[in-house]
Amino acid sequence: MRVLVTGATGYVGSRLVPLLLDAGYAVRTTTTPGEEQPWWSERVETVEMDILDEQEVSAALQGMDAVYYLVHGMGGDDFVEKDREAAQHVAAAVDQHGVQRVVYLSGIVPDAPADELSDHVTSRHEVEQILSGTSATTITLRAAVLMGSGSTSFEIIRQVSERLPVQTVPDWMNSDVQPVAVVDALTALAGALTVDSATRHYDIGGPERMPYGDLLETYAEVADLKRPQVEVPLMPTDLVGSLTGVLTDVPAPTVEALVESLHHDMVAAEDDFHRDLLPEGHELVGMEEAIRRALPDPRENDPSHPENADPMGPMPQDPAWASGGSGEGVGERAAQAVRSIADRLVGGS
Description:
Layout: E1 2-5, H1 11-22, E2 26-31, E3 45-48, H2 54-61, E4 66-69, H3 79-97, E5 101-107, H4 119-132, E6 137-143, E7 146-147, H5 152-163, E8 167-170, E9 176-177, E10 180-181, H6 182-192, E11 200-204, E12 210-211, H7 212-222, E13 229-232, H8 237-247, H9 252-259, H10 272-277, H11 287-294, H12 330-345
């Protein structure tokens, strides 16, 4: 089977490609001009593609049996429009070239009225609908928090926990979340390529669900950090997003987009992905184990042999802000964050 992986140099894609190669698939990946080539690049065919260029998308999908859609916008005023346009280009190329299967990694869609969903969640769902309307069998995997070094959500949890001596938890952040280890998500993504199914979505989650505050607490315990929690009432969502963006090295628009989703439970509605997408006997990684495996010092990994590294830990393609970030200027940023909280809570500017 000939498989195209879009977003192949991203967090999930860079870990998925070697898994597909080891399974015997012929893999084509997309890249952009000037992008650093990953350690597995000599084993794949690589084509340059701007996903907003309809002709380049069509050329990339030509001759493919299946495509992984692993790209999405996270910030900026027009990310919803760009996500829609990108999905429409891929959908048109799928129909044009007779691609048989599309696998899309999306996010959990909370059980809430549409007008209460964040732009981030709404956009992901719209992309799913566009891809599901093609002639191909489209399998969408909806995940909440991916646990692993380099994952955006995990890096936010790690950096906030390590940089704030006291965890300030908004009173509205008591919704449940069901994190999933990236190694389990990767196994499910690989399984989605061959599952005998019509077009549908699967919710994927780990073996535990917990409130966000408990997830922060679990991280602190595993990382051996003493981080008392203080519940803060009446803290606006946009303020939490802005302050979290200040305190972490993760791009601020990405942080703010994710924080918008914290008002609702982000849990799997059903667990049939375990039966359909994972090998028989596969055991899901629990949260404490996932955190422990994500925490090794990146200096412990041998950069000359990334093929032997645990995908839960740091990998060569991870962004500069991963593995805990640099922490540069965090003291001043933390002070700025505290001042901003105080100003907003007393009605200041």
